[in-house]
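Input (structure):
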């Protein structure tokens, strides 16, 4: 079994895969050696991959490195099962490349647009030649709400939520509609644009921030909230077999 650790800015996802089958996903506010030890006691783990956008404390990192199983940490030096044409791979978000690998694993040899809605919203392209081409980054919902509140004198801080309103008749609703519809139109616009440029494009939507938009999008999409975990498992399996 593979142990997958995805440490984001606000939470940690830990998953167990048996070959390509996802068995367990659990969320934690922070990664600790105690949490890892609990997984090791519950499952016959043979390999581990760590993907983190923040620094892991030394004790936890050493614990992972000293376990009697295969361990790797995803960096820009890690061999990938797809080609990467990003000009600055050292600055490419690990979650972006992992999601791209995950989408390519689920639908190989296809033109893919991967939309990951989280703290930021990323739009990444993988070609039918199984090559990561690059993408775009825009602010996520929470950043937009906070920007309107913090960079103006009087606008209140609204909360992220799905809405069917066309206009707001009070300031909170006006902000909510403006932000959420703005993201919806942005996503639809990117899908439409790339579908015109890339034949037979398939679209994957992932990230917790994508949930309010799943039912609203007019274009056909694949929704896979565990796409990053799937990609990390694929990267781990690929490196174990090298």
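Output (sequence):
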């Amino acid at each position: 079994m593979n142990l997958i650790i995805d440490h984001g800015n606000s939470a940690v996802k830990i998953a167990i895969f048996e070959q390509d089958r996802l068995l367990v996903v659990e969320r934690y506010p922070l990664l600790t050696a105690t949490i890892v030890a609990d997984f090791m006691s519950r499952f016959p783990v043979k390999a581990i991959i760590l993907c983190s956008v923040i620094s892991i404390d030394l004790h936890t990192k050493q614990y992972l490195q000293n376990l009697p199983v295969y361990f790797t940490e995803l960096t820009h030096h890690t061999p990938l099962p797809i080609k990467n044409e990003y000009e600055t791979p050292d600055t490419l978000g690990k979650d972006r490349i992992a999601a791209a690998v995950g989408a390519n694993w689920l639908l190989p040899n296809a033109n893919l647009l991967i939309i990951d809605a989280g703290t930021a919203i990323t739009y990444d392209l993988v070609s039918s030649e199984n090559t990561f081409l690059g993408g775009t980054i825009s602010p996520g919902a929470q950043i937009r709400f906070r920007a309107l509140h913090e960079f103006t004198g009087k606008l209140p801080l609204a909360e992220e939520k799905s809405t069917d309103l066309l206009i707001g008749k009070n300031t909170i609703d006006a902000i909510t509609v403006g932000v959420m519809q703005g993201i919806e139109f942005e996503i639809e616009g990117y899908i439409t644009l790339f579908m015109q440029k890339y034949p037979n494009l398939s679209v994957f939507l992932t990230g917790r921030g994508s949930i309010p938009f799943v039912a609203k999008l007019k274009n056909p999409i694949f929704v896979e909230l565990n796409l990053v975990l799937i990609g990390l498992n694929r990267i781990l399996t690929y490196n174990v077999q090298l």
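Notes: The chain is about 35% helix and 25% strand. The chain has a mean pLDDT of 94.
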